[in-house]
Structures are given as structure tokens and as C-alpha cells.
Specification:
alpha/beta, Arginase, Chain A, 8-stranded parallel β-sheet, 20 helices, globular, binds 6-[(3-aminopropyl)amino]-N-hydroxyhexanamide, binds zinc ion
Length: 675
């Protein structure tokens, strides 16, 4: 099957056919061009053609009544027949929204498009998809329009998925810069829908100014713990801030929750240049956010447009999202400097508040909860010192570089293995076209010693393969070798001595002693998961993670991957990931696929997996992950060993000065280089 035919795109020009008909400064940014420029960008880049185009439909009364009241629906139904004056009066009863004779029609299409997307994904017609819709939905409530929203598209979709497909757990990730209070109200007491929203808040000074948008609103009754708010109290946040929240809050909780469907309130007013958000995250960050969600729920991710008002960063962000859904290699996550102080404060508060609901947060930053209430009071630093007026803001045109091109190498996954190996469908046997360089052979011979001549060919083949990856001719690879640790050692020595590959991240699963092969010059980083406590050996670039029960501990391995390995990996930003698995490491196949999938966000997907020849049965699942198939869901995770949590926490604390993306709280004794 063509992997490109698995992403739905749902759009209809009809949804551009309404606009603001009077003067209202609060609403003037919500223009039809938001959709046209987004769709044109998808066409121009060829992304639209690679998607399955699914037609929109009108949501029925029954669909709309899943969330909204009969009275409200009936009232909106009248708007197509109203005069301009009537529309203005009708509009006045709601906040920051406008009506138009055609908006009811468009609102039915926006909700219906979202349902078409859910149907396409739930029936397996596609793996994932995006709906480009107007009006947006996440602010609209049971009986009220609000914030440009008429019907709550995503809430309706969640109720619909529960009802029609008996979906047991749904994650709604709202990465729009506004709080989707409509979604929060809809699922407040429902533990089957986990609503996660980050939003500009500024201690309630930012629209919609709600007390219940703060981190201490967690849901009610049965639903307590299933509403997660991350309030931003400063503008200008960037990629590091967003990724920190993903790695240290959203993903650990999401993996523990184990959704069967992921809905994204995909607003792009969180991107740079947006007049509402005033944040600094670049469009390529949405590639990573999307990718990090794609191994949840067996890959069932539905992104639905909400806000986004900068007509340059909006289409760029939409393209990054769709291109990731299609499975193209991720852009390098450039220049992650770690979260800012204000973002860390928010992250800390939300983690501490939720630790009673989620076992992955059990030791969250060991701060007594009483101290938290003081964090609601704003600190002097929170004021942005220079308040610029509107004129000044508009005058200084913000510029940012175009997102990097994301070209897929011709070869997706190459396999190196013993003679007669059969390559799983979609992968291909790697045969170097030229004989290896005699100098290389000589060096490898020195490294291998006399008694391992037969490993020589494999090794030189592997080095050629890595060279092809570096030239972006091949995306990923799997090698079955006789002795993984020896092979790894030789590769590492070779890389250390040559100009090869600007940086390499090595992820090693197993108990073997491997530290000695690591240089401390920043060319490589090694993260080892083992049952041994090797903490004393730790350096900036050698990070041993101890799991008492070994890699068979699903919760432990996933948690360490999300909150330690990935932050380190993102900040280190390797050009290549070497993923090494010893035959006795005990990793469970689904967890292994998760690890393989998640790591492909790094190094533009250049992952080389090393496995022992005897691990034959793992070839197919590994290749499948390298080919971009979503990893199977792990089931709701149980608590993992408290010894392990403590050790992990200690490790993170020690490494935080060197690796800022590990921080989850404002450091007490500031690190030396912090000014
Ligand atoms: C004027 C205040 C405008 C309207 C906010 C509507 C937000 C809609 C949205 N500067 N307030 N929601 O994007 O996600
Ligand atoms: Zn918004």
C-alpha cells in the first residue's frame, strides 16, 4: 500500500464564504484568507495531492445536540434570515464573535468536516488527517457562541466517537494559544476524555480572563485529573517551552492514559508572528508536536484547525503538521536552549498539582503543595517591562526564516544482515555499489583484532550505510550483526576518529560495559538503559539509566524515554541516532516499537538500529517502525518502581545544569553559566 494514501485532508471552499460585515477590532483578524492561504500552501507544496481528499458534510441537528442546547441551535438556525442589524444585535449577547448570514451553514460544515475526519480515521480508511475549517470551535459552549466559534467542532467529534465507535479514552490536545473553555466545560466530569490545554494567561489578564483557566482547575468528580491546564504567564515563549511541556507533562500523562483516539485543537496562533499569541515558536515546532502524538492511539490522530492569524506563519505551520502526518522526515529541532523561567514555573505548578492523579508525576519536583498557592500571585518579573503600543508593534515586522525543506531520501529503510536474510516489505537489502576504501579496512582491522575477520565486511558495509544516511540518500537502517556491542564499539571509534556525522546519539539497551568507548568532546552522547546502577560513572555525555527490572519494565522504560532520553536527545540534536539492543535486554516488542518511533523525531529520522543476528523475530516489527507505522498502544500504564523514579529524578537533577531541557522547575541554585 502506498504509505502516502493514509492521511486525510478535509477542506471545502464554502467555509471561506462568510466574513465580518461591520467594524469590530476584536474580530477583524478572523478572515476568510486564513483558510485560502493555508489550502493554497498545501497545494503549492504538493502536500494536498498526497492526502486522501475527503468531502465535508453538514453536521446534523443530532450531531450538534451532542454538545449544544436545543435553544441555542434553534437560535443560530435563524441567523441566515436576519438583517444586518438583527445579526449585530444577535451577536451582542456573546463575546468576541460575529455572525453572518452564511455562518450557520459554514459552522455545520466545520463540525461535519471534523466528523468526516473521525469517521475516516475510525473506520481505517486513513491513518490520520487534518480538517481545515472555519469557524473554529473550542470556545463555543452549551448555549453560547464565543471567540469566533459557533459550534464546538472537536467536542462534538469526541462525543460522536464515544457514541458511534465506543471509544473508551480520548485525548484532546489543544495547542491553540487560547484556552478552549468550551471543551473544558463539556468534559469537566468525564474521565474518558482527557483535555489538555496550554494557553496565554498572564494571570488572568489575557482573554478570556477566566479564573478556571489556571493550572488548579483539574476537572470535577470522576473527571478530576482529566482536565489539564498549562497557563502561560509571559509572551515570547519558544520551541523549548512547548517541547518541555510535551516531554515532561503531556506525553507522560498521555502514555499513562493510553488514548484510543487523539483529537488536536490545532490552532496556530501559538506560532511566531501571531498578533494574538505574541509567541516566538517557529512553524517547524508543530512537526515535532505532531510527531510526538503519532505513536499514541495506534496513530489515530485528527488535527482540526482552530485559531492562527498570521497569514505567513499559519500556512507554514499547517504544512509542517500535514507533512508530518504524511510521514516525511522531521526537521532538525534547532537551537533548543531550554525553557524560560516563567514557563518552568507553569510547568512546575501543573506537575505538582496533578501528581495526585498521575503516577508518572508521583515525585514531581517534590514541592509541598501548600507552596503552590503562592505561585498564583504574580511575581514582579512577570510584567513585560516595555509595553509597546499597537502602532509600534505593527511597525516592527517580525521576520523568521522559511522552515527547512524536508526531503525524503529515495530509500526509506535499508537492511544489512547475514546472507539469505529476507527483508520485510517496504525495506530493501543494502548493497554498497563500490568496494570499501582500503584505508577504512585497515583501520577496522586494527579495531577488530585478528580473530574477527568475518565481521569486517559487515562493518565496512555499515559505515558505508551511515555515510549514505549522512548524505540523506537513505533515511534509516537495520543491521543484524553477530556481536552488537563489538560492532557498536567499532562504529563509535570510527566516528570519533573521522569527520563523520556531526553528532551521534547512541541509545543502548543492555547491561554490557560500554562507557569506555565514549569521548567527551560532544561528538557523541550515549544513553544506556540497564539493570546496573552505574550512576557513579555518569558524565555529561554518558548517561546510564538504571531500571531495576530491566527493559522489560514497560512503564519505567517509557517514562525514562519521555522525560530523560528525549529531552537530552532534543537538546543534543544529533545528525544520527544509533539504537542498539542486546539480545538479553528483555525489552517488550511494543515498547521497543514506541522507542524506535519516538526517536525518529531526531536526526531527520536517520536511525540505525543494531540487533543481534539471533533476534530474528524482531526484524519485522523494527522495520515496520522504521517505515513509519505507528507503534501499537501499550495499554494504560501502571505505576513504575519508586526506586526507579527516585533514581531517575536524581539523574535529572544532576544533569540539569548541562541539559536545560531536563528542567521541570526553576533551579534553586542557578547553574554557573546562567549569568
Ligand atoms: C483583541 C482581543 C480579541 C478575541 C479572541 C478570540 C480568540 C479566538 C481564537 N486583541 N479577542 N481562539 O483564536 O482560539
Ligand atoms: Zn486561538
Amino acid at each position: 500500500m502506498n504509505p502516502d494514501t493514509r492521511t486525510a485532508l478535509i477542506y471545502d471552499e464554502e467555509m471561506t464564504k462568510y466574513k465580518l460585515l461591520w467594524v469590530d477590532p476584536a474580530c477583524k483578524i478572523e478572515v476568510p484568507e486564513r483558510l485560502t492561504v493555508s489550502y493554497e500552501a498545501l497545494m503549492k507544496t504538493g502536500l494536498a495531492d498526497r492526502c486522501v481528499s475527503v468531502p465535508v458534510r453538514e453536521a446534523t441537528d443530532e450531531d450538534i445536540l451532542l454538545v449544544h442546547s436545543k435553544e441555542y441551535l434553534e437560535a443560530v438556525k435563524q441567523t441566515p434570515y436576519m438583517t444586518l442589524e438583527d445579526l449585530q444585535v444577535f451577536t451582542l449577547q456573546y463575546g468576541d464573535v460575529y455572525f453572518h448570514p452564511n455562518i450557520y451553514h459554514c459552522a455545520k460544515l466545520a463540525a461535519g468536516a471534523t466528523l468526516q475526519l473521525v469517521d475516516s480515521v475510525m473506520t481505517g480508511k486513513v491513518r490520520n488527517g487534518m480538517a481545515l475549517v472555519r469557524p473554529p470551535g473550542h470556545h463555543s459552549m452549551h448555549s453560547a457562541a464565543n471567540g469566533f466559534c459557533v459550534f464546538n467542532n472537536v467536542s462534538i467529534a469526541a462525543k460522536y466517537a464515544k457514541q458511534k465507535y465506543s471509544v473508551k479514552r480520548i485525548l484532546i490536545m489543544d495547542w491553540d494559544v487560547h484556552h478552549g473553555q468550551g471543551v473544558q466545560y463539556c468534559f469537566e466530569d468525564d474521565p474518558s476524555v482527557l483535555y489538555f490545554s496550554w494557553h496565554r494567561y498572564e494571570h488572568q489578564k489575557f482573554w478570556p480572563h477566566l479564573r478556571e483557566s489556571d493550572y488548579d482547575t483539574v476537572g470535577k468528580a470522576e473527571g478530576a485529573g482529566f482536565n489539564i491546564n498549562v497557563p502561560w504567564n509571559k509572551v515570547g515563549l519558544d520551541n523549548s517551552d512547548y517541547l518541555s511541556v510535551f516531554l515532561h507533562m503531556l506525553l507522560p500523562v498521555a502514555y499513562e492514559f493510553c488514548p484510543e483516539l487523539v483529537l488536536v485543537c490545532a490552532g496556530f496562533d501559538t506560532a511566531i508572528g501571531d498578533p494574538e499569541g505574541e509567541m516566538c515558536a517557529t512553524p517547524d515546532v508543530f512537526a515535532h508536536l505532531t510527531h510526538l502524538l503519532m505513536n499514541l492511539a495506534d496513530g489515530k490522530v485528527c488535527a482540526v484547525l482552530e485559531g492562527g492569524y498570521n497569514l505567513k506563519s499559519l500556512p507554514q505551520s499547517v504544512c509542517e503538521t500535514v507533512q508530518t502526518l504524511l510521514g516525511d522526515p522531521l526537521p532538525r529541532p534547532a537551537n533548543l536552549k531550554g525553557p524560560c523561567k516563567s514557563a518552568l514555573e507553569s510547568l512546575h505548578c501543573v506537575r505538582a498539582t496533578h501528581r495526585k492523579y498521575w503516577s508518572c508525576l508521583k515525585l514531581a519536583d517534590d514541592l509541598p503543595s501548600e507552596e503552590l498557592s503562592t505561585k498564583r500571585v504574580k511575581s514582579a518579573e512577570d510584567d513585560n517591562p516595555i509595553e509597546k503600543n499597537e502602532m509600534e508593534k505593527e511597525a516592527e515586522e517580525l521576520v523568521w526564516p522559511d522552515p527547512p525543506k524536508r526531503t525524503s531520501p529515495n530509500v526509506r529503510t535499508a537492511v544489512v544482515g547475514p546472507e539469505g536474510i529476507t527483508c520485510p516489505e517496504g525495506s530493501q537489502l543494502f548493497c554498497p555499489s563500490e568496494d570499501p576504501d582500503p584505508n577504512l579496512i585497515k583501520k577496522l582491522q586494527e579495531c577488530l583484532g585478528k580473530d574477527a575477520e568475518d565481521a569486517l565486511t559487515t562493518l565496512s558495509t555499515l559505515i558505508t550505510l551511515m555515510d549514505q544516511m549522512e548524505k540523506n540518500k537513505i533515511r534509516s537502517g537495520l543491521a543484524l550483526v553477530r556481536n552488537v556491542s563489538m560492532t557498536m564499539n567499532c562504529i563509535v571509534q570510527h566516528c570519533a576518529a573521522s569527520s563523520f556525522c556531526n553528532r551521534m546519539l547512541i541509545v543502548f539497551l543492555g547491561d554490557m560495559v560500554v562507557k569506555n568507548c565514549i569521548t567527551e568532546d560532544g561528538k557523541m552522547m550515549l544513553v544506556q538503559f540497564s539493570t546496573k546502577s552505574l550512576e557513579a560513572e555518569m558524565t555529561k555525555y554518558y548517561i546510564p539509566v538504571c531500571l531495576k527490572k530491566g527493559c522489560s519494565d514497560v512503564s519505567g522504560l517509557i517514562h525514562a524515554t519521555l522525560s530523560l532520553l528525549l529531552p537530552l536527545g532534543y537538546e543534543f540534536d544529533p545528525g544520527l541516532v544509533l539504537l542498539v539492543r542486546t539480545p538479553d535486554c528483555g525489552v517488550n516488542e511494543n515498547t521497543w516499537q514506541q522507542l524506535t518511533g519516538l526517536l525518529q523525531g531526531l536526526g531527520q529520522g536517520h536511525t540505525l538500529v543494531l540487533m543481534q543476528e539471533s533476534d530474528q523475530s524482531s526484524v519485522a516489527p523494527t522495520v515496520s517502525s522504521l517505515l513509519g507505522a505507528p507503534a501499537p498502544a501499550l495499554g494504560p500504564l501502571s505505576a513504575f518502581g519508586s526506586d526507579d523514579i527516585e533514581a531517575l529524578q536524581r539523574l535529572k537533577l544532576k544533569l540539569q545544569c548541562d541539559w536545560k531541557l531536563l528542567q521541570t522547575t526553576v533551579p534553586e541554585n542557578k547553574c554557573d553559566d546562567d549569568g
